[in-house]
């Protein structure tokens, strides 16, 4: 991994700077910080970074002014600059690119991993080396598997899985056993037919016959009334 790949981040948002500094350092970069455009212009001559992440809305000297100063200075004009701003309008992006920015990233639409990919793409365009730590995007995600075992929800999620797998296996065994008894279950079906041959009356059949007759009579009465009313 090449050493000394330095990023100068110029932004007045302390929380955002702390977050990106941590992620970029995990990716193998050396990160320098400036809180405003004036300080950033001074530090860019001291540090000579490989790339600059520059905000637009800053005190003293804003991002557009800082970008113009960087690109107009022969000592710094070849340093690539990526605008990292909260401004979302296309006109802001166009203005930054026309002033010499190599890329424009909207803070609310990009994760640190996306910013790192943009940085790598710009450094590649300038034939500059950057940390080739392919596993760096996984480092921020590493706490996720660590948290799961420690939580109470992680243990029960693992326990039910073998139980669910064993239950169908236990049911599969009896499912094969009842298949032979299907034949004896068919045998008792003719048994109720035998009493019918002997002449015994089945109350269920009588009930359904009466019900059918009542339904027929009711339908006849309904149609008769409907016909008489229509006249």
Task: Give the SSE layout.
Layout: E1 6-10, H1 14-26, E2 30-34, H2 37-47, E3 51-54, H3 63-72, E4 81-85, H4 90-98, E5 103-106, H5 112-125, H6 138-141, H7 143-150, H8 154-158, H9 160-176, H10 182-186, H11 193-197, H12 203-230
Parallel strand pairs: 1-2, 1-3, 3-4, 4-5
Helix pairs in contact: 2-3
Order of helices and strands: EHEHEHEHEHHHHHHHH
How many separate domains?
2
CATH topology of the largest domain: Rossmann fold
For the largest beta-sheet, the strand count, sense and barrel status come to:
5 strands, parallel
Lateral strand order in the biggest sheet: 2-1-3-4-5
Q: Could you say what the CATH architecture of the largest domain is?
A: 3-Layer(aba) Sandwich
**Total strand segments:** 5
Distance separating the two termini: 101 Å
The CATH homologous superfamily of the largest domain: Response regulator
Count helical runs: 12
Fraction of residues in helices?
55-70%
Output the structural class: alpha/beta
CATH class assignment of the largest domain: Alpha Beta
Shape: rod-shaped
Q: What is the radius of gyration?
A: 40 Å
The stretches of 5 or more residues where confidence is low (pLDDT under 50) are 134-177
Q: Please, what is the average pLDDT?
A: 78
Strand content: 5-15%
């Amino acid at each position: 991994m090449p050493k000394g790949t330095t990023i100068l981040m110029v932004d007045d948002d302390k929380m955002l700077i702390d977050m990106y500094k941590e992620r970029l350092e995990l990716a193998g970069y050396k990160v320098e910080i400036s809180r405003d455009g004036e300080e950033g212009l001074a530090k860019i001559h001291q540090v000579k970074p490989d790339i600059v992440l520059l905000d637009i809305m800053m005190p003293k000297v804003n991002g557009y002014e800082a970008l113009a100063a960087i690109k107009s200075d022969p000592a710094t004009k070849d340093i690539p600059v990526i605008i990292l701003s909260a401004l979302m309008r296309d006109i802001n992006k166009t203005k930054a690119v026309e002033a010499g920015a190599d890329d424009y990233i909207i803070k609310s639409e990009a994760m640190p991993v996306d910013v790192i990919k943009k940085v790598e793409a710009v450094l590649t365009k300038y034939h500059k080396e950057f940390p080739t730590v392919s596993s760096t995007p996984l480092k921020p995600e590493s706490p996720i598997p660590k948290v799961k075992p420690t939580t109470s929800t992680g243990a029960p999620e693992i326990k039910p899985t073998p139980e669910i797998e064993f239950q169908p296996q236990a049911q599969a065994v009896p499912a094969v056993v009842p298949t032979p008894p299907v034949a004896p279950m068919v045998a008792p079906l003719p048994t109720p037919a035998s009493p019918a041959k002997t002449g015994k009356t089945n109350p269920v059949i009588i009930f359904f016959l009466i019900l059918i007759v009542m339904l027929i009579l009711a339908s006849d009465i309904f149609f008769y009334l409907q016909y008489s009313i229509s006249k």
